[in-house]
Design a protein that fits this description.
Structural class: alpha/beta
Shape: globular
CATH topology of the largest domain: Rossmann fold
Largest sheet: 7 strands, mixed
Strand order of the largest sheet: 16-15-14-17-18-20-19
Distance between the termini: 71 Å
Number of helices: 11
CATH superfamily of the largest domain: Vaccinia Virus protein VP39
Number of strands: 20
């Protein structure tokens, strides 16, 4: 007897799934058989009735089906979640660098766990349940995390556009064990940082930028470095360790500025030599006269959805244009977009337009992305949210 509702595809609509894509959109579905509340586990079948996968079903979403496993006889139970989390934890033991106590343990589809993000900060796990399917598996996920990690507490940061698209309200607060302190100290490649997993952006720290911070460290020696949209100053701290003569961190949030100052002091760097400026980055770039050897632009997502795209592209062009204006000849720009709606090709085109308007010649040194603890399903380009360019700038 089949315990699951069934999602029946239209003819020939299984091809993306067979190539590895983990989503099925509403336009590909012919019918849904059985009781199917949002978040239910369902069996996906082709038009001839052949079972293809088990996954989460949400008839109210444009993404109707999210693949969990192609083994269609596997039970989706506590042991299933434990095995998936054990595999994710095993991968992190191999790839997280030494002297690092904060990393991403689960990266949604990249770890075969659609809608689940888990970040580890020392003795605490921060969980984000972003889909109706994962929302329904909350207790099983908590049990599996308790088995597969040695954390003292699990805290929830389930909030944002992804949940609202699934018809879910935000949920923030303790899930199990101890509540993390407001300022939690972590290590990253031996550097020390204060993190607020309770009230900070995302889950408290931009873990995905770890390899790019290491690149900045290597490029900063002897130079003047501008860290735009600096949040709590992690790029600046790395630049200081790399021997930067001066760093300038610009951030609009007063709380983040205070933490940036503490992070500099925590690692032995004098803020009088490496100022933190509370300011709007757009306004700062338009008025600053100081030339820089290295500029980092890591803004928040300008385009959370497709409807925000035109305004976002104007914003990306403006900040990059102004960055080119203040870079010395031979300087380097590390520029990023974390907007899902802005593809890598679109982002590169906008940055090239900014360089053209600034009348500078740029050479691509590298395309940048998140660290290896943020794996992405190769067949799922939608999961590649962080795009970056490392550019050498000539007059």
């Amino acid at each position: 007897m089949n315990p699951y509702p069934e999602v029946i595809l239209k003819p020939q609509r299984e091809r993306p799934l067979l190539r590895g894509h983990p989503w099925v959109f509403s336009g590909a579905v012919r019918e849904i058989k059985g009781d199917a509340p949002p978040g239910a586990v369902a069996r996906l079948c082709d038009a001839e009735g052949k079972a293809l996968a088990l996954g989460f079903l949400n008839p109210a979403s444009d993404i109707v089906f999210r693949v969990l496993t192609r083994k269609t006889t596997d039970p989706i139970d506590d042991d299933f979640w434990r095995r998936r989390l054990a595999a994710a934890a095993g991968l992190r033991r191999r790839i997280v660098p030494p002297e690092t106590t904060a990393f991403r343990l689960v990266n949604a589809e990249g770890d075969g766990l659609p809608g689940l993000v888990v970040d580890i900060y020392g003795d605490f796990a921060v969980v984000s349940l972003e889909t109706a399917g994962m929302e329904g598996q909350r207790e099983g996920i908590i049990r599996a995390l308790r088995v597969e990690t040695a954390v003292r507490g699990i805290y929830e940061r389930s909030e944002g556009h992804a949940r609202r698209r699934e018809g879910l309200k935000d949920r923030v607060g303790p899930l199990w064990g101890e509540t993390p302190p407001e300022n939690l100290e972590i290590k990253e490649r031996g550097l020390r940082f204060l993190v607020s997993v309770v009230s900070g952006q995302k889950t408290g720290f931009f873990l995905d930028q770890r390899p790019n911070r290491r690149i900045v460290e290597r490029l900063a020696a002897g130079g003047r470095v501008l860290n735009g949209f600096s949040y709590t100053g992690a790029f600046s701290v790395y630049a200081c360790r790399g021997g930067a003569a001066r760093t300038v961190s610009v951030e609009a949030s007063p709380a983040a500025c205070e933490t940036a100052l503490e992070n500099l002091r925590l690692n032995g760097f004098d803020p009088s030599d490496h100022p933190v400026i509370r300011a709007d980055m757009f306004g700062f770039l338009r008025t600053v006269k100081e030339p820089f050897d290295l500029v980092i632009l890591d803004p928040p997502a300008f385009a959370p959805s497709r409807g925000d795209l035109p305004r976002a592209l104007r914003g990306y062009k403006e900040i990059n244009l102004q960055a080119f204006r203040i870079l010395r000849k031979g300087g380097i720009l590390a520029t990023f977009s974390c907007s899902n709606a802005v593809g890598a090709d679109i982002f590169e085109r906008v940055v090239l337009q900014a360089a053209s308007d600034a009348r500078v010649r740029v050479s691509l040194l590298a395309r940048l992305g998140p660290g290896a603890d943020h794996p992405v399903n190769l067949a799922h380009p939608e999961g590649r949210y962080l795009k970056g360019l490392l550019l050498s700038v000539q007059g």
